[in-house]
Write a structure and sequence with these properties.
The chain has 124 residues and is mainly alpha-helical. The chain has helices at 5-19, 23-32, 73-79, 94-123, and strands spanning 49-53, 68-72. The chain is built from 4 helices and 2 strands.
């Protein structure tokens, strides 16, 4: 017997979710890594950051948080499907932690402001 439409939609949704990271997980990884590239040590806002797979998806890596790491665009594009060594970074001072939290709050405020502005433009 053929699968029903809802079952097909659910299967498709699960496959899709396996391919892409949701915004919440992406932000959680960025925050965990203190908005700093774990390969070269550069940090936002001076560099564009992405969430990268430690073990690439094509080599069996998953979207679990223990296989995800913050990477700058240069490091991520340069490594392609290979694995780079993760540079252990020094423990952050309380001041650095505070600055990272402050910067994260500014980024969130900016994103929310843009969201509400676009939402209002669409309604008008």
């Amino acid at each position: 017997m053929a699968e029903s439409i809802p079952e097909i939609k659910q299967e498709f949704r699960q496959k899709l979710m396996g391919r892409f990271l949701n915004r919440t997980l992406r932000f959680k990884i960025l925050k965990r890594d203190n908005f700093r590239c774990q390969y070269c040590g550069r940090k936002a806002p001076n560099v564009e950051l992405e969430v990268d797979h430690i073990v690439p998806k094509v080599k069996g890596g998953t979207n679990s948080s223990n296989n995800l790491i913050t990477s700058c665009v240069d490091c991520n594009r340069g490594k392609g499907r290979s694995q780079l060594e993760v540079i252990p970074l020094k423990e952050l001072t309380e001041e650095e932690k505070f600055e990272n939290k402050k910067r994260a709050a500014e980024i969130i405020d900016s994103l929310l402001e843009g969201y509400h502005k676009n939402r209002n433009n669409i309604r008008n």
